[in-house]
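User: My advisor, Dr. K., asked me to get a structural model of this assembly before our group meeting. I'm new to this, so sorry if the format is off. These are the inputs:
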Amino acid sequence: MFYREVGQYKTSYSADEALFPILQDKVGIAVILLVAFVGVPLTASNFTVDSILIPILVFSLAATGLNLLIGYTGLLSLGTGGFMGVGAYACYKLATFFPGVNIIVLILCSGFFAAAVGTVFGLPSLRIKGFYLAVATLAAQFFLSWCFIRVAWLYNYNVSASIEVPTKTLFGLPVTGPTATPVTRYLIVLSIVALLTLLAANLMRGRIGRAWMAVRDMDLAAELIGIRLYQTKLLAFAVSSFYCGVAGAMMVFLWLGNAESESFNINQSFLILFMVIIGGLGSLLGSFLGAALIWGLPIVLRAAPAHFGVSLHSATVEQTTFVILGVLIIVFLIVEPHGLARLWQIGKQKLRVWPFPY
Amino acid sequence: MSAQPRIAEGAGAIGAPERALGGTILAVEGVSLAFGGVTALSDVSFDVREHEIRAIIGPNGAGKSSMLNVMNGFYQPQRGVIRFGGREFHGMKPYEAARMGIGRTFQNIALFRGMTVLDNVMTGRSLKMRRNFFLQALRLGPAMREEIEHRRAVEEVIDFLEIQHIRRTPVGRLPYGLQKRVELARALAMEPTLLLLDEPMAGMNLEEKEDMCRFVLEVNDHFGTTIVLIEHDMGVVMDISDRVVVLDYGRKIADGTPDEVRGDQAVIDAYLGVAH
Amino acid sequence: MHLLYSIFVDPFVQMGAAPDLLAQTLWEGLVSGILYSLIALGFVLIFKASGVFNFAQGIMVVFSALTLVGLNEHGVPAYLALAITLVVMLALAFAVERVILRPLVNQPEIILFMATFGLTYFLIGVGELIFGGDPKVMISDQLRLPSGSYRIPMAGGFVQMQKIDIAATVIASLMVAALAILFNRTRIGRALRAVADSHRAALSVGISLEQIWVIVWFAAGVVALATGIMWGARSNVSFALEIIALKALPVLILGGFTSIPGAIIGGIIIGVGEKMGEFYWGPLFGSGIESWLAYVIALVFLLFRPQGLFGERIIERL
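Assistant: The format is fine. Below is the predicted structure of the whole assembly, which you can bring to the meeting.
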């Protein structure tokens, strides 16, 4: 019974409205942040950081963006990959035009470009609802994918139609390009993700988050209370695309080091969508859990046969991953349609009364 | 065959407290509404005086909910005019209605099922919350103060309707009677001048109905809110309303105090029946 | 000025100048439109009867075609392979009903939609594991499908029509007619429509939801197989087909999600619009606009008629 909130009384509204009102949660998050910022750089291997932690963080941010749109506002979007791509290519062009500017500034600015594009493709959302809106976002996705190949200006007329990241430094340390160490890149990604997640959490708890959820649950009633539907929906598209754009820029600049149109195609959109579904719609924690599971699972699956001494064709492993992923999605939806986040909540509930069963 | 409305100042029906009624706050004139080939309302006119409790009654399908939806801006009538707040509307937008202080509850409960009671009621304050996006994201200073200030106001409403114990419960889990109360709380959080209630007592047992009556009367008494309600329970209507409008097949067939309407032959034929 | 001319005038001039090319493009558009319609038809069947938007329809097309070809590769004669494939699709229908539909029966539609995502990935994985990931050639000859083409002289040039395409058109029409009769004239069809309307009401009059779902998914499987055969005969059978299936979405937007004639008409409009757009306007933008043109057409359409050509106007009541 060590997850009890009994005895923790709030004597002011601001205390009640805090992000982590329960003491155990406050301690827990402090520990996590400590491990993430200090523990990991000291102990984790380069491989773990580069191939597991950084991608999970990047995808968590994209999943947060998508979750905002689907989970909180109820607007189904299949254009995530495209918006990530806008952020990535915008960052690349910005780096070309402003070579001296701080990379973090560039990454955040490219988010705004993605937000602008996202808003434009969100314009149909007043007339079109539900599933039909998904088709509109598909138009965005395919159009953007096409642009990433056709519009040569985007990749500086490079013959291979791909973009390579130049080396940029921060405080004298190389942070992008081939010379940057995984740990440096990891810390920057972690900081950006932590900050943006905090901002998202704040938004959700306030007027804007409530307006989004109201639009999701019953937009007619929301209108009758005085919530402006159009502005609210467009804002959701803008903010969501901002997050996806930043994630895309980070993906290229702080993780892969290069990219091409294929990196931002429809499959990417589906990937992020699965992360959101499995993690839990409408839950910020879910975005992280979903990203961790969907990214981590193939890695585990690839490593497992070798671990057990069985050698399998890499293609076989890929295909088995697909099968397991498909089964996992179905099982999840049957057992817990609200995803990992709900499982986590149920776990916390059990912790409240443990060691008693109920 | 509608009787001339006679309002005695302060005199209501049995059991209703004395309250001073003001001038006309809302007038519906010649409103007609049709969907495709189906006529919902046909040349309906009546007025609502400030601080009064006005009931709209009639058989099923008479157009009562449609009337409220017109007053709320949800439907735009083909003909007719609504005068409210000194302005004339041929059909307002829902946002305008909300902004002018018209609040509403619904027959089939239109709560936001994914949110807690507290959040639902807080959405009622949406119009009053002004702090912009970036301040919200940072949740510092003015945004935080605004949130607390509105939380305070919402807590008052929650106290008033005695739903403190369920404030963090997701509304989907609540029993029907409590959901209706939460819906009322959300409408009250808007601080409306005019409150439209669509069958607030529907599906409730006797105890719940008495509670709801008490709340409605207190809202009217305490905050001076003008109330227009649709109700089927004749006992409730006669008890708490100042004046009654009777609709049948989209037309107004009577308009007056509860006693007048109860004795009106057309109303008896269409709706009330004869007491045995 | 020149730009306006090249968008609004020049393409039509080109059309008039070479009517045989125009006819060819129209024919190509019609054929691909028919194939899109067939995929959309599968969607419509399942959506009409179970309210599920079956994202896996595309992969079912690929999977059924692969099964057919794969069996034949292992020595099974063509028509026997066809029969076995049908049995496989029936088994798949049973499995889907048992494993996915029954446990999720009361969940919101979005959950069921996501479940079909899971099914898609599952079928992709299994398909690749069993049959390998390489493109395969459709066994058109063994199935006695016509090959070769007709050349019709026209206006100085000629129009070439592949016989397989004509066969596809005929088979599609027959299938549509059969399905229309099934839905509207038979007892089962009435039950299907009842289930599409309301699961609970259908249950209360004694209709077995499970049976209906199996029937419908099997029907969709048959349509998928036919589509796979036709499409595979024109180009190869590969997993790339799966993405083409997404093209069915604009078709459904235009034709409505529950209308069989709508799927056909929508498919033709999209197919023709896409081919014409690519051929006459494509060069203006650089090639490859086929990848998004269909969606943009659907999008523009939605802005004017949010419920599609044949969809029902949803009147929202509060």
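One thing worth pointing out at the meeting: Residues 103 and 195 of chain B are 5 Å apart (CA to CA).

User: Perfect, thanks a lot.
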